[in-house]
Amino acid sequence: MRLKDKVIVITGSTTGIGKAIAQRCVKEGAKVVVHGLEEAWGQEVLRELGEDNAALHIEDLTQDGCAERLVKTALNRFGKLDALVNNAAWVVTSSIDDTDKTFLQKVLEINTIAPLLLIKAALPELEKTGGGVLNIGSVNAWSGEPQLLAYSISKGGLMTMTRNLGDSLFRDYGVKVNQINPGWVLTETEIQRKKDQGLSDAWYESIPAMYAPAGRIIWPKEIAAAAVFWLSDESGPVSGQVMELEQYPMIGRNAPKDTSTIK
């Protein structure tokens, strides 16, 4: 097993990509701290993974001291910490018209500042184990959609943080920092978000080729499969890197012939 006996904190893991990463990590032999805001969802994940393999921490990441308490949960339950996955994020629509100072500050606090504070809190323990950090970003970090302005700004900041700390923390502490930038992923919340925007209940069953050449968008378990590489010893001394996981190149993509819309 590729993650045998590793202890991993995974934020935002009661659903979606985080949940898929937690499931795959346990299958690969790790112990995980499941985190989120939804107690009922968290308990369901805990039952699935087994209490011998997982601990649950329900708390808003923006609360003072949450980062330290998450690290303490790992230490109290499993005695060490080998890796941190910063996955939790607020995916929220906004444009230049409705992005004000207060709103942007809230998005940044959740998506960019909270991951930094978690890295700071986990660093002493990760240094002991020669561990690492995996940030889950977004392809929107490169510029983003017009209606994802604040979210895209926050993910751009996270990507810069990964490259900065991937250099300095590895040299000074022996702690690697890398990032996955997923494209469009079929999570439970994304299904509901698109329905709330007026799409049909089965919108994801017929995605135009311009959005998904494969005819479908990416599954959370496919992001989780990539996460295992970065969390395992197989990634070696690689640090400060960002991996895009999308169906087409983010730069230099040819204009698609199919311009039909999602229904």
Layout of helices and strands, plus pairs?
Layout: E1 7-10, H1 16-27, E2 31-36, H2 39-49, E3 54-58, H3 66-78, E4 83-86, H4 101-129, E5 132-136, H5 149-173, E6 176-182, H6 188-196, H7 220-231, E7 242-245
Parallel strand pairs: 1-2, 1-4, 2-3, 4-5, 5-6, 6-7
Helix pairs in contact: 1-7, 3-4, 4-5
How would you sum up this structure, described in words?
It is a single chain. The protein has 263 residues and is of the alpha/beta class. It folds into 2 domains: 7-183 and 220-244, Rossmann fold (3-Layer(aba) Sandwich), CATH 3.40.50.720; 186-217, no CATH class. The chain has helices spanning 16-27, 39-49, 66-78, 101-129, 149-173, 188-196, 220-231, and strands at 7-10, 31-36, 54-58, 83-86, 132-136, 176-182, 242-245. Strand 1 (7-10), helix 1 (16-27) and strand 2 form a beta-alpha-beta unit. Helix 1 crosses helix 7, helix 3 (66-78) packs parallel to helix 4 (101-129) and helix 4 (101-129) runs parallel beside helix 5. The protein is globular. The N and C termini lie far apart (42 Å). Keywords: Oxidoreductase.
Q: Helicity range of the residues? A: 40-55%
CATH class of the largest domain: Alpha Beta
Helix and strand pattern: EHEHEHEHEHEHHE
As a percent range, the share of strand residues is 5-15%
Q: Strand count, sense and closure of the main sheet? A: 7 strands, parallel
Sheet with the most strands: spatial strand order? 3-2-1-4-5-6-7
Number of helices: 7
Instruction: Output the structural class.
Output: alpha/beta
In the CATH classification, which architecture of the largest domain applies? 3-Layer(aba) Sandwich
Number of domains: 2
- The separation of the N and C termini measures 42 Å
Enzyme class: oxidoreductase
Keywords: Oxidoreductase
GO molecular function: oxidoreductase activity
Protein name: SDR family NAD(P)-dependent oxidoreductase
